[in-house]
Amino acid sequence: MISLFVKLLAGIALDHLLGEPRRWHPLVGFGRWAGWLEARLRPQLPTRAGGLLAWLLAIGPWLALALWLRVSHPAAHWVVDIGLLYFALGARSLAQHAEAIAAPLAAGDLDMARERVGWIVSRDTRALDDAGVAKAGTESVLENGNDAVFGALFWFCVAGGAGALVFRLANTLDAMWGYRTERFIRFGWAAARLDDVLNWLPARLTALTYALLGRSRDALACWRAQAPAWDSPNAGPVMAAGAGALGVQLGGAAIYHGREEVRPPLGCGRTPDAASVRAAVQLMQRGMLLWAGAAAAGAVLAALAGTR
Fold first, then answer.
1. What secondary structure does DSSP assign to 211-270, as a single string?
2. Where do transmembrane segments lie in this chain (predicted)?
């Protein structure tokens, strides 16, 4: 337990100090590998089984390599676990992307804010007004707080660096293949469902974290009333609780792949603005401190139990 806490703290510290690599990002290479697999397997096996095979082939070699490296030397587990947690975390990058939206939005540069929010969301941002940009940015920070932070921390605590690696790669495949389009409706089914499974418990812990650190009563009420209306079993609780914790109204109509989707409402309170995007980042960062504190408490209890 003590070694787990030290590794967790080291991985968080590396992400805080270094952020994501600017060059030779591992996820870029993984995305190319996944794209190569899809181009060869999907035309031949455009089925759920073909998608599952592609998922296993995409992730399996890297998981096997990580496990082999971890046991290649008695001390290798320190380097491998810390390095993989650093790879899986995206807290600093998420905060930087959010500020790149909030700063021009607060300054009245709507065109720049639209461009920057388009970097991190899949909806069409060209016609968004100020509130629409703030809504998209806030939703993205809240949802990615689970995908790029708390989910990785959870699976690291469960299964070490290998757990964080599988979670991050599965989340990436869901982002690439998990769409209900003609191209991926069957082939991407496994990527979407496996991401749902891996995210189920982390998403609810993320929602609870948001509720504890914000407007708790509103967050829990929004989670209970609004999350079931969302198609995603995990994004619903995370964003409903997060919006309630921040006291803002999210959800509503958005354009995806040229088609308008009217999404259920999220949260309660005021219309979001640039301050809401920044508040979502602060909520995520306070949540990381809470999780680190919980891990520290667990390490202390384990040490005390070991001395008895």
1. HHHS-HHHHHHHHHHHGGGSSSTTHHHHHHHHHHHHTBEEEEEEEETTEEEEEEEEE-SB
2. 52-71, 148-170, 288-306
Q: How many CA atoms lie within 13 A of 107 on its CB side?
A: 11
The residue whose two tokens read 């299964």 is 159
Task: For residue 266, give the nearest of 287, 285, 289, 239 by alpha carbon.
Answer: 239
Answer for the pair 140, 149: CB distance below 8 angstroms, yes or no: no
Residue in the structure block whose two tokens are 């991401």: 195
| Among 170, 214, 218, residue whose Cα is nearest residue 195 | 170
All structural domains of the chain with their residue ranges: 2-306
What's the CA angle centered on 57, arms 33 and 70, to 5 degrees? Answer: 90
pLDDT of 305 strictly over 80: no
Distance CA 92, CA 41 (A): 35
Q: How many residues does the chain have?
A: 308
In tens, the pLDDT along 187-213 reads 999 999 999 999 999 999 999 999 999
